[in-house]
Fold:
Amino acid sequence: MPVVHQFSLAVQNTAYFTALRESALVYPIILASHLATIAIFGGLILMTDLRLLGLAMTKIPASQVIARTRPFKHAGLLIMVTLGIHLGGSKLADYYDNPYFWMKLSLLLLVFVHAMVFRRGVYRNPAAVDAADGPPRIAKVAACLSLALWIGILSCGRWIAYYDRPEGQQARANQIGRQR
Amino acid sequence: MLQFQYDPATNPLNNNDWSFPLFECIHIAMFAMSVGTIAIVDFRLLGLLFRKQTPAEVLKATSLWTLVGLIVVITSGMVIFTTDPLSYYYNWSFRYKMIALVVAIVFNYTIHRRVAMSNCTTAVNAMVAGVSLLLWISIVFAGIFYAFVEELPYAGGPPV
Structure:
């Protein structure tokens, strides 16, 4: 795919992304911020899912857990995606044919589908999730799918760094974790 | 000096493609759980989240998950450490991380817990929440930075 390759190269070779990639400080700071966002806002997603499954924070009504954490999750997603675009853009020529990169993007797309599908039945339905005998089955299905999606996104994100092109050319140094 | 023979090359994590990243994923998911639940308490202390509940209620609702997260994140971290102990040990970012981790855990189960369980002033709540968030975020940062900093010089010459 020479066109895609050239496009990816052009993106990562823009002055902005080049400066970012070559900075000894800015690139690790963006990467660390990406991870810190996972820590703080990813934790909110995890706890909401565990709440819908009836496992955590059961003394706080599920509808409140959903509604109160929503603005935080939106802000977190915005920060996370912004940082992710910077990480991806600055090394796009390394990533464009990386299957884990595309799996991660596809799963992120499915997160939006998930939100749409369960919006009426679960996430905007306080009466249903606050039912006396715990959240209904559909809420638990939503929670399990959400957990699976986010664990998948996290794992793909990590595995991007370990993918080697079949030809074995182009050593990708400088990514988080030691290459082995 | 107590010494024992250990060759990281014999570590299973260094001998296949999948186990090292797998433990990294577990590590990341579990720091999301531990730091994430602590951050929920911090946001409550800052008056930003779950204002209908008291900080004590939020702490009680999350503390089990914080503990589970901490246990698994530390265990998986130890496993990752065994893949290359010396290069971690001679890395200032790793050393900062270990010290800050001990400080953060002690802080979390003493001052942080105590303030969350009692009715402190807004200023005290905010200060404790701020310290907590900064500490934990700095630990995540240190975890990333040790892939980017130079190793410290080996004190007694390079180990054999």
